[in-house]
Amino acid sequence: MDLDSVRKHLRKLKSYAERNGIEKTVFRAVEGISETLADREYAEEMRCNRETSELLRENEIIGGSIKISILVPACDPDPDDFAHLLDSVARQTYGNYELIIVDAGKGQDTEAVVNTYMADPDAGLPIVYKRLPENLGISGNTNEALALAKGNYIALLDHDDFLEPTALSRIAEEAVHGAYVIYTDEDKYDARTDRFFRPNRKPDFNLDLLYSNNYICHFLAVKRELAVKTGFRSEYDGAQDYDFILRLTDGMDEEKIAHIPEVLYHWRVSINSTADNPESKLYAYENGRKALQDFFISKGYKDVVVRDTDHRGFYHADYSNTVIDKEKYVLLVDDRLCPLSADFERALSGYFVRPDVGIVGARIIGRTGRTICNGYERVTGGRRVSLYGKMDFRFSGDMHRASMTRDTEAVSRHACVIRSELADCITGDSMEMCDEIRKRGYRVVIDPTINFKLTQ
Asked: 20, 188, 272, 275: least CB-packed within 10 angstroms?
């Protein structure tokens, strides 16, 4: 690890300690060591994958009926970084696209780079360029680019990030199959060390995880008419994509939301980016919380309070201020479990203000602090596994998801609340019980901020 990386980690730990205290910082530092080791393995994996993608690029460019408009709102990016972005678009294996660049910068460098590529017939870039008379902010600038789009789908690309060669072809494949919203996995890229790290392996669409964090983020493609209808709102600049995704997916048939489990987008880190320095744009995190809070209010959930968590850009929707009549739900708690918070019943039952939630489970931890249940899912062969099983409950897990509320296949019947109308689903098997609840169209939610400890 170079000196700059050491300084970066120390800066992050100092900020974390100031917010959360020494004990939590110690656990975060230990978890960070594991992440660093995983990053080394990923860097080698990515090197091999990119060699393969270079071979793919040598094949003939694929055509298709789906036209994709890539929107790039630019505001004085580093010229070399911006050229890297353009190179990554020029190297796409899918040919039916347009690259729309709206330039809100004060300098001339962006336009000069664009002119170089437009004058080069070998670059093959179908660029639509517009110089804005003033900087309208990230939302306003993106809306300007959106207004120029002619494609069936729009895709969002930040002005210093870049794509894998197969990004557009994979997007087009899902579009042909009828998806309205398409997103991919992503990672981070440090140009100082030419290193790819911290892959974000995302789940398929998970509404309650989205209510905890904008995990969808990059690379995102959307049917153009839906994007135009939704638009970007300047009051949430810095988190405008989070506000956009919350409203875009609200009430949408989840079968129309496609996840491509491949890292196809690279988020460039710099001292001024939230990818590398969480303190660089605190307003973005504040606007993210505001976007989620305002979204809940628009849904009529005025008593739900969105709170910051220990981790920047990650939130917790607190339903404990919502009072649900006791006859509306059944509380199931094993006698061997002791709650670690006094208001656990209100916090869990409050979720039933939402008509889509059928059961909410708490996290169960053992006497030594190791996780026993933080949700269940099935793996190959139908075997049930406990998510984050045996992990110390003070660790937050990959992308902090062990500490985030999310939808899951099943929760433990030993610490949960269930809607009264679903009481006939209650059985001695947690997986079977939750399977039936999901078959009836309800969500199964795990809230790991509510903890029960095994006492005997």
From this structure: 272
What is the spatial distance between Cα 86 and Cα 113, in angstroms, rounded to a whole number? 9
How far is C-alpha 371 from the geometric centre of its chain's CA atoms?
24
pLDDT digits (tens, 9 = 90+) for 184-218: 999 999 988 889 999 999 999 999 999 999 999 99
Q: Which residues pair with 187 in a beta bridge?
A: 266
Given this model, what pLDDT does residue 51 score? 60
Place of tokens 């939302």: 139
Are residues 200 and 185 in contact, defined by beta-carbon separation less than 8 angstroms?
yes
Distance CA 226, CA 154 (A): 10
Q: Which H or E run includes 131?
A: strand 127-131
Distances (CA, A) of 327 to 330, 420, 423: 8, 7, 11
**Which fold does the domain 319-454 belong to in CATH?**
Spore Coat Polysaccharide Biosynthesis Protein SpsA; Chain A (3.90.550)
Cα–Cα dist 360/324, whole Å? 14
**Phi/psi of residue 184, each to 5°?**
-120, 170
In the numeric block, the tokens 């201020």 are attached to 321
| Amino acid symbol at 159 | H
Give the three-class secondary structure for 331.
strand
Residue ranges per domain, the chain? 55-288, 319-454
* Those residues with Cβ within 8 angstroms of residue 48's Cβ, 6 or more apart along the chain or in another chain: none
CATH architecture of 55-288: Alpha-Beta Complex (3.90)
pLDDT score recorded for residue 5 = 56
Tell the residue number behind the tokens 């392996």, with chain if given: 201
Could you tell me the sign of the dihedral formed by the alpha carbons of 121, 126, 130, 131, in that order?
negative
Task: State residue 346's pLDDT score.
Answer: 96
SS3 368: coil
Query: Using CA atoms, how far apart are residues 421 and 329, in angstroms rounded to an integer?
Result: 8
pTM, full prediction: 0.89
Q: Specify the residue for token string 């889509």.
A: 356
